Amino acid sequence: MKYGKEFWINEIGKDWTRELKETLRTPYANKLMEFVSVEYAMHSVNPLREDVFRAFKLCPWKDVKIVIVGIEPSHVSLSSGLAYGDKHVMQFHVAELGKIFDCIEREYYLNDGSVYLDFDFSLDHWAKQGVLLLNKSLTVRNGEPKSHSKPWGKFVSAALNAVNENTTGTIFILWGKEAQQLKPHISKNNYVFTFDAPGDYVYPAKDWSCPNFKEVDKLMMDLTGKTIKW
To answer: How far apart, in whole angstroms, are the C-alpha atoms of residue 106 and residue 114?
Structure first.
C-alpha cells in the first residue's frame, strides 16, 4: 500500500499513527492523500507540502497538554502548518495572528513596561510545549478559502476524537463559532475554554482581549505547577 504504516509514521510519528490506526487503514485515508498529491501538483496550495502534518510532528501524542482548534491555513500568506501560525518566524502577514500577538503582549508585557520582542510567529514555540495547533482542514488552495474543508473532515475529527476520548485533563481552546461546535462533544474528563475568533476583530479594527491565556495559566498551575510561555 502506497500510504501504509511507514508513510504515516514518517508524517505524523509512531504514537499518532497508533492512535489513528483505524482511520489510517481505511480507503478514505488513501484517497485523502491521493487528493492532496494531485492538489499540490496542479494548484498553488498552502502550507508547503512538508508542513502539512507539522502540528503532529512538533507536538507528539505523549506531549499534548492543550489543543487549539483553527479552521484552515491562511489562503493569502504562507502558513507554518500550525493553526494560526505564519511561516515567517519574526513577523506576521495575517491580521488574526497580529491580534493574538497584541493580546499576549498586553496581557504579559506592556503592564510592566516591556515589549515581547522574541515572539515566534510560526507558533512552533507553543507546539513544542505541548500545544497541538490543529486546523480542521490541513491544506487550502491559495485564494480559495474552504476549498479543502470536506476532504480533511474525517481525518481531523479522528485526531480530535482520539485526544478527547483517550486522554484526561487536556485543555481544549475553541475560538469562534465553527470551532465551538465541538464544545458539546468534549469529554467531562477534559477542559474547555472559548472566546471569539481573533479574525472577527480585524474589521472593524478592535482589540482582541482574549482571557483564555490567563485562564489556562491558572488551571495548568493548579494541575501541574507549570504554565505555557505564550
So the answer is: 10
pTM reported for the whole predicted model: 0.95
Q: Where are the beta strands (DSSP E) in the chain?
A: 45-46, 66-70, 131-135, 140-141, 171-175, 191-195
DSSP, collapsed to helix, strand or coil, labels residue 78 as: coil
Phi then psi for 154, rounded to 5 degrees? -65, -35
pLDDT mean over 31-38? 98
108 within 8 A of 150, measured Cβ to Cβ: no
Q: How far is CA 40 from the centre of its chain?
A: 21
> 96 Cβ partners below 8 Å, 6+ apart?
84, 197, 198, 199, 202
CA angle 204, 107, 71 (to 5 degrees): 55
Question: Per-residue pLDDT tens for 126-164?
Answer: 999 999 999 999 999 999 999 999 999 999 999 999 999
Q: What angle do CA 28, 30, 31 make, to 5 degrees?
A: 65
- Grid coordinates representing 131? 500545544
